[in-house]
Amino acid sequence: MAEPLNLLWLQSGGCGGCTLSLLNAEQPGLFDRFADAGIRLLWHPSLSEETGDEALAILVACAEGRERVDLLCIEGSLMTGPHGSGRFHILAGTGRPMVDWVRDLAGRAGQVLAVGSCAAWGGITASGPNPGGATGLQYDGETPGGLLGRDFRSASGLPVVNVAGCPIHPGWVLDTLQAIAMGRFGAAEMDALQRPRLYADHLVHHGCPRNEYYEFKASAGKPSDQGCLMENLGCKGTQAHADCNIRLWNGSGSCLRGGYACIRCTEPRFEAPGHPYAETPKVAGIPIGLPADMPRAWFVALAALSKSATPKRVRENAVSDHIVTPPAAKTGVK
């Protein structure tokens, strides 16, 4: 019988929201998924019983190579400040910056995963003037490099796997870990930004419950409206790589199903869009955030055509918080 894969999880500069999301894994639950995949949790700061000297002993054994680390998951950005020293974040009880621990452990790990957009790109903690020097494991925003450098490769030969999201969907992490455990995860399973293609090959737009309104460019005018949120209320679902509206959260929800525009949280620099999240910047009345793979002229032409063909029902329902005009019932057989 194969030995279980050892998983070590560390939290750095972040809110812990990815761990909270991970705990929502269901059918089966988190620890059942670990067991099914043959993964042994060495230590997690929120989920493990070991604390203080016991926890430190595990980390030291891993860093020195006396305990095997097959999977190293880092949650939260890496705090390199002040002035590159990393001393804004000292691992309690060690006197050493967390960034030094991460460098040592990554050098021994079979596979390194950045869990969440903070660990992948820097995320929310890197917004504004970024006095803490927050960066991602192998990216600083859109720029390759980050803490470990663009040439870093784990013992598996792969770069950091960026399981980006703010927070992550538990399935993104668990499916990636299971694929690694089964020997079915390689370079071909990652996109150009090193995200697992199992969710990054989709757009948030796929499966959006407001797609009929999008097709006819019947737009919401205020947050409570049912219409498409792209034209006026900042939705970036046509630009965001994720399967949020296909792989629902807690089995039933997503940001758009809750009435919130997609803020593109799986992408680098989502935290600094240059405008309020709930507003759509426009040039000459045309939204600047168009679908990434569609020429602007085509979009404008199609939008004009779609609006001219919008059914009265769709137009009225788009600017209401409930169904005002239901679809007509078909009474005859033709």
Question: Main β-sheet: number of strands, strand sense, barrel status?
Answer: 5 strands, parallel
Shape: elongated
CATH topology of the largest domain: Rossmann fold
Which structural class is indicated by helix and strand composition? alpha/beta
Unreliable stretches? none
Q: How much of the polypeptide forms β-strand, as a percent range? A: 5-15%
The CATH first-level class of the largest domain comes to: Alpha Beta
Biggest sheet strand order reads 2-1-3-5-9
Write the layout of secondary structure elements.
Elements: E1 5-11, H1 17-22, H2 30-37, E2 39-43, H3 52-63, E3 71-75, E4 78-79, H4 98-106, E5 111-115, H5 117-121, E6 134-135, E7 139-140, E8 143-144, E9 161-163, H6 170-181, H7 197-200, H8 211-215, E10 282-283, E11 286-287, H9 296-308, H10 312-318
Parallel strand pairs: 1-2, 1-3, 3-5, 5-9
Antiparallel strand pairs: 4-6, 7-8, 10-11
Helix pairs in contact: 2-6
